[in-house]
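Hi support team,

I submitted a single chain yesterday and got back a structure, but I'm not sure I'm reading the token output correctly. Could someone confirm the output below corresponds to the sequence I sent? I've pasted both exactly as they appear in my results page.

Thanks,
R.
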Amino acid sequence: MEIIKVVPRGYCQGVVRAIRIARQTAEQYPDQPVYMLGMIVHNRFVVDACEQLGIRCLEASGTSRLDLLDQIDSGVVIFTAHGVSDAVFEKARAKGLTIVDATCPDVEKTHRLIREHISDGDVLYIGKKAHPEAEGAVGIGKRVHLISCKEDLNALGKLENVLITNQTTLSMLDNEELIRECLKHYPAATVQAEICNATTMRQKAVMDLRDIDLLIVVGDPHSNNSNQLKEIGKKAGIPAALLIETAEDLSEALIQGAKRIAVTSGSSTPTPLTNAVIETLENYARTGVFQRTKLSEPIL
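Hi R., thanks for writing in. Yes, this is the structure output for that exact sequence:
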């Protein structure tokens, strides 16, 4: 059995920055309640580690960031790497909260692009429904229209000076397909694809794999970029692809018969989790004895 460690994998700079901001905030405000508006990144181990620092994560399925603010009366609020709408900023200021913005710079770039355009045109924003990054972008203005599938285009009427852009963590292949659909409806539209470089590099690394029997993606099931790596692997022709959170999710049955196993991880996945998976596989390949490696490094 051969284990291929896909490069690049794991944390992107936006995630590293968000985690650093969270840690610094907990240290800076030891005597105030500190809240995180949603998961700082989509990985429960990172969220758990932040809560151990005294940061309370507010997250509820189907509840917007704007409504989550109702749970905070005072203190410090951290906006996550996914970004928030202008209305969330305004409400937090009106409540007198101390705002710490951990929005990823790539997401901020997309927000600036949208703000500049909607003064004299419409934006088709390709993204996932109910995803916090899409929520923040669409919340910028009424002329921003969320496109999650081609059927969403049928509900739109006449638009002016159309710009097509997207969520930064989408599948390159899916995004290209939806851009083509958008151009069928609005052939004069301008396209500015905004999939971030970290996502692009990780997806291309998976697409370039050859003669792999099994792809293992280490990541949270809520992480869009981790799920996309799994789907990209399938579309690239890899016979089997798994998304797992930790080495505890591995079993001998899952990997038996695979001669070449590639391992990658989402950009919000802590390195210790991926290292434990790789070590488990390498020990099995060397000894033939399956034994899961325990975490030996801190998450943050």
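A quick pointer for reading it: Residues 140 and 191 are 19 Å apart (CA to CA). Let us know if anything else looks off.

Best,
Support desk
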